[in-house]
Amino acid sequence: MSLEQKINNLETDLHIMGTLVLDSLVSAVRALEDKDTLKASEVMDKDDEIDDAYMKIDQDWFELMATEQPVASDLRLSTSILQASLHLERLGDLSVYLGKTTHEIHDLPIPESLHKIVVEMGDMVIDMASSALESLKNRDAELALSTARKDELINSLYNKMLNEVPNISGNKDLYSGLFRLITCVRTLERGGDHAVDICELASFLITGEFKEF
Amino acid sequence: METEITTKKELDHVFTVRDVSVSYGDFTAVKNVSMDMFKNNITAFIGPSGCGKSTLIRSFNRMNDLIPNAVVNGEINYQGINLYDEEVDPVQVRRRIGMVFQKPNPFPKSIRENITFGLKVNNMTDNLDERVEKALTQAALWDEVKNDLDKNALDLSGGQQQRLCIARTIAVEPDTILMDEPCSALDPVATKKIEDLMQILVKDFSILIVTHNMQQASRVSNYCAFFTTKATDDGRRTGELVEYSDTKTMFTNPSESLTEEYISGRFG
């Protein structure tokens, strides 16, 4: 197999993994929204598939480095693929975390306004992760930059959530659910960061220079 | 020439090359090369066969003078001196700018005589034993041959012969070493020894290396020049400099698509 074919296969594997992760995120956010524990369990079970996809990319990259020693754009592409796969793996872990949160809160009284914020953040992470992968696939620097900028919205929702907390924290009945949701938004906020990191890789691939967005 | 070179030694540029073309009769092997090379750095020349890299490096110590019909146009300044100035003595040039060739070519004499020959030619006959030891030590060969200095150099292994040639070159105390594919006839173990040696030598010398091995260029050099051949009107091919940059940039983000294609093995 030629170097070009090997790198093409690596990139195809990345986008297959991306589809798995996006499916998982969508199911996890919908399960959280509907407090659907069955769907949440399915998401958690599916994580092994994502981990296997990550391990395959990791091993194929390692073999590629050992046997082909790619340089220039081949080197940038293969290394960006490896790094993007790691961010996808973490986004897969985020889905698992959302699944666990669904199990924890489904029978707890939770403040509805905060539940909405969490779901909204989840949808934004899905949107960002999807666009980040598209920017990488289409070598679209503009899309990478505009997607990375969306992280500000996630951060502002995160802050909105934190600002709401003092209004509810005196209510003992809502405390347990509140606590779960706060840790959940922190994890979602990190999910946005992983999407931004994928956008940075897309930009690096196109320009050859690494810039933090 | 010697006094002038010594006084200008502190300059950072070891070679300043301007619009240099080298021809053999009516055939131009390489044309319009302009570049600066830096002191105490390793500069690698890469490119497909026939791109003129060996021709060019040979013009840096006037080895092309020995080839009939070879003409160098343009200007090659070495530490501020025009190497092709009428008053410059080519023998002195070759002492200050030593050369190591593709195939190890020791004289069919003893190890010691291989070192002392050049010293005698250059009237550097004081402390001969000391000079022999110093050169062999600098070339990382002393420990392997110190008890066999009278052994015929041709009995050494290929890698040892090449290090002897390096020792022979540095014995006459040059400033710069030109290496024309110094490892292409060596196995990977001997190649690694030469590459490790280059990293030590570069502290005291400026090194220019021509290599067909791109991994070698990326491993050993600080700066890298990529040459290629282009067809001329008469159907022949002439070498040209395509890109010259620091090695890291060349192997991670080259600016020319021709460079990218060559270093990633897509042409040439």
Task: Note down, in words, how this protein is organized.
The complex is a heterodimer of chains A (213) and B (268). With 213 residues, chain A is mainly alpha-helical. Chain A has helices spanning 3-34, 37-68, 72-105, 112-137, 141-149, 151-168, 172-207. The longest helix of chain A is centred in the last third of the chain and has 36 residues, at 172-207. In chain A, 88% of the residues lie in helices and 0% in strands. Chain B is built from eleven helices and ten strands. Chain B has 268 residues and is of the alpha/beta class. Classes of the chains: A mainly alpha (213), B alpha/beta (268).
Brief overview, please?
The complex is a heterodimer of chains A (213) and B (268). With 213 residues, chain A is mainly α. Helices cover 88% and strands 0% of the residues of chain A.
Order of secondary-structure elements of chain B: HEEEHEEHEHHHHEHEHEEHH
What is the helix/strand order of chain A?
Answer: HHHHHHH
> Helical percent range of chain A?
over 70%
Coarse shape of chain B: globular
Strand content of chain A: under 5%
List segments of chain B where confidence is low: pLDDT < 50 over at least 5 consecutive residues: 1-11
The gyration radius over C-alpha positions of chain A equals 19 Å
What value does the average pLDDT of chain A take?
Answer: 93
Shape of chain A: elongated
End-to-end C-alpha gap of chain B:
41 Å
Q: Quick one: biggest sheet of chain A?
A: none
| Proportion of residues in β-strands of chain B | 25-35%
Assign a percent range to the helix content of chain B. 25-40%
- End-to-end Cα distance of chain A, whole Å, is 36 Å
Oligomeric status of the shown chains?
A: heterodimer
Low-pLDDT sequence parts of chain A: none
Overall pLDDT level of chain B:
91
Biggest interface, and residues per chain? A-B, 11 and 12 residues
What's the gyration radius of chain B in Å? Answer: 18 Å
Number of strands of chain A: 0
The structural class of chain A is: mainly alpha
